[in-house]
Amino acid sequence: MNLSTCDLCDLHKGDDPGVFRVMPGSRWRSYGGAPGMAGLISTVRCLEDNTQVKAAVEGPGQGRVLVVDGGMSLRRALLGGNLAAAAARNAWAGLLIHGAVRDLAELRAQPIAIWALGHVPLPTERLGQGLRDVPLLIDGTAIRPGEWLLADEDGLVVHPTPL
Ligand SMILES: O=C([O-])CC(=O)C(=O)O
User: Where would you tag: which of 14, 59, 89, 152 has the fewest CB atoms within 10 A of its CB?
Assistant: First the structure.
């Protein structure tokens, strides 16, 4: 069964908003070659340093989605063509970057979903900063490693277990 985010919102209307979570919409933009993604969540928190993003996508994705809290910074790109190719090669289902990406044509060529707030051509400096698999709070939505995320063109929803 392939439910959309809209279907899930209809089905889970009465749920506790702390359990079935709908991320506030409209600001996310889809940059990848796949229109949506679903999978268990792995996380990174970093600011203008993509050391941990690189480490994550160079490891096994096992169909998971990588959610990166980049502090909304649009000053430096946390992901570009090389890291997107590594993510696809290593079986990540997709990436959600609360920050910026670059190499737009190369991102579109990858068969995975990539969502970000915006883009900028300037890469980060990798200084070894950032945290892996920590709980995040993005736009007021709690996102924890091991939970489940579904994203499609209508938006993004999070649940403790796959729906
Ligand atoms: O390496 C980086 O920091 C980002 C990038 O340009 C790429 O992934 O190709």
Answer: 14
pLDDT in tens, 69-86: 999 999 999 999 999 999
Pocket test for ligand 1, best of 50, 51, 82, 106 (most atoms within 8 A of CB): 82
Topology annotation, domain 28-147: Glucose Oxidase; domain 1 (3.50.30)
What pTM was computed for the model?
Answer: 0.96
Among 58, 102, 126, which is best to mutate for testing ligand 1, by the most ligand atoms less than 8 A from CB?
Answer: 102
Q: What does the pLDDT look like over 111-134, one tens digit per residue?
A: 999 999 999 999 999 999 999 999
